[in-house]
From TrEMBL:
GO molecular function: ligase activity
InterPro entries reported in the protein's UniProt record: ATP-grasp (IPR011761)
Protein's organism: Brachybacterium halotolerans
Protein name per UniProt: Carboxylate--amine ligase
UniProt KW keywords: ATP-binding, Ligase, Nucleotide-binding
Organism domain of life: Bacteria
Amino acid sequence: MAPASSRSRGPVEPRDDFDLVMLGGDIGVYALARAFHEQYGTISHVITRSVSGPIADSRILVAEELGASATEDDLAAALLRHGRERSAQRPGVPAIALANADWLIALLSAHREELEEFFVLPVLDEKTLRDVSDKATFSEICTTLGVSTPETVVVDFTGEGPTEIPELPFAFPVVAKPARSSAYTHVEFTGKKKVYHLTEPAELTDLVHRLDEAGFADRFVVQEMVPGDDTAMRSITAYVDQAGRVTLLGGAHVLLEEHTPGALGNPAAMFTADPGEIAAQAVAFLEHTGYRGYANFDVKVDPRTGVAKFFEVNPRIGRNNYYMTAAGANVARAVVRDVVDHERIERIVPDDEILYSIVPRPLLMRYVTEPGLRARVRRIARHRTVHPLAYATEGARRRAYIAIAMANQVKKFLTHYPRPSSSGF
């Protein structure tokens, strides 16, 4: 059974006194466009290399396709060109520029000075971005604040010659991943993954050698394996206004993550839940670092101790952000009230319990094995289930795409994660 579309209705607060321009074209960009359309009736302008399924044939955005070979400089130039043209057509009307990939956030931040002539940029400055988006530095900051993280060893690929294989103070299996996703995006080699599950020292040695050969010149982190399957994961989404106040905050209990090599760890299904102390720890991190803009934390609750361990903060809203909007905390409101209206607002929090899912329900229930959790998921699903792409405003082509995408999820899971495991790998 496919998740239901949202109720068909007009925008909550129709407005035409600002524009939204975004870089990228994934499901998270569409979810942001949908939030702005639901709240304000905004038709977003999206600049992307390729128009893929999540944004194709949409009535709520205009896609500008540059071509698959477009470089970062091409994207920046296209954004500036659009900014100049839009400014001439709508003088005095502000435009918000956003993105939903680490490397695109880094692009906006690096070009801030020239972009700010035409856009409002509610994204991190370059220094803070480097500090918080580096998983090694993130762990150090959390330690300072008394926030738990997995035990971590850093592998530095910036030196001359072969990179040294580290001695680990914890046992295999381990998890390895790039310290900064933006520095890993353009590196290509056979067997490249978003996250690596390594079961023995020889696999770590092989990974280090392959990264050396590919010319990777940043840092990797190797972390202890925190036990528990996907259902031990939690997601925290926030927005920090230009005065440093956390004005959007909510969380979700993850049920199933994607398991294809390029998308491993992205939530595929989750339900909204009060994050409790986890949210307070996220706020402490955001305030301590001088954070600004959207943030999304990945957290795992260690079943041995019940302690929540923070893995990383994504310097963006995250591809799964529609769970917030669907649960009553429309993510567009925080940024518009901040950078367009310049208002101090009460914190926006979810007020409904909903199931967010991009997979068919029978497939989801295959992986939710704990009886009490299964019963809770069924109850929430009956109340309201949402798919970020299933928007009643859209047409038949979009509905057909969603049906195909849902069917493809079955194939992907049966290929890459055919049955549930205690570790999620």
